[in-house]
Predict the 3D structure of the following.
Amino acid sequence: CTWCMLMRRETLAILNCTYKFIHSHRNEVSILPIEVRRELSDISAILPLLRTNLEMDWHSVVHASDASPSGLGACARHLQPESVGALGRTSELWRFKTLNAVQARRSALGLSVPPRDYRPGDLDALDPSLPYLSDAQLLDNDDELRCTIQSFSEIPQEVVSAEHWKVIHMSRLKHDMFITKAEGHALVLSYKHALRSVSAFGKRILGLVDNMTLCLAVTRGRSSSGMLIGTCQRICALSLASGSRLSTRWIPSELNIADGPSRGVPRPHGCTNNSKTSDLLFTSTSSSPPSTSS
């Protein structure tokens, strides 16, 4: 059934226990446990929904989400659907086939990317006399690697310019949460906000996040991590119910304008330092945590 589910990759998140069972009983005959049978039954029930439209339009509202140790935040802005599509059609998985984009933060911020050195054990070195191979030597020697090199389109910095965005959600975490899981909650909140408008139904929706693990999990449709599988399953449910698709792109924390709202600052702005230790309004002793959603 996996081949059918590739039409809607987000449905792969349903098969959580099933994949675990396959990996642990790969070479033996076993009785299917109740949780595996339940997942397979769920897949059978949603088979009529496993269809897609290759010409699906892009929604004109772009969302950005973020989480901090104390809260969640989300922002939104309008763009022409053609511009949204140009941004959303690039998969973050392609980054790792592009030498100049592998160092994601430096590439996204427009900083120079120093050449990488490879040890002979990393790839088959054709010249054993060289202790290290540079990128240029690898490209000269490896036709397959050279074919994978292509330009990678980062999110332009003008797209995440703060003056074009507005805060749509700002809330305080009620308890401590692992940051990747919190980032997933923020992404789901922004997706729900997009689907409050009927005009978003049946369209592709672009979400910007600064957590690469989360971004790649949503791109794949599932994650083996317990921190993210719940997020992927909620995105699957929202997508099937609305006929929409969520596409995610990664941006560095410095450019994520949802960083401010996630820290209790009611205006869009990015992280001012890599350690994310700015003063937080959420650390106040007020008994009523700030929360806003529009």
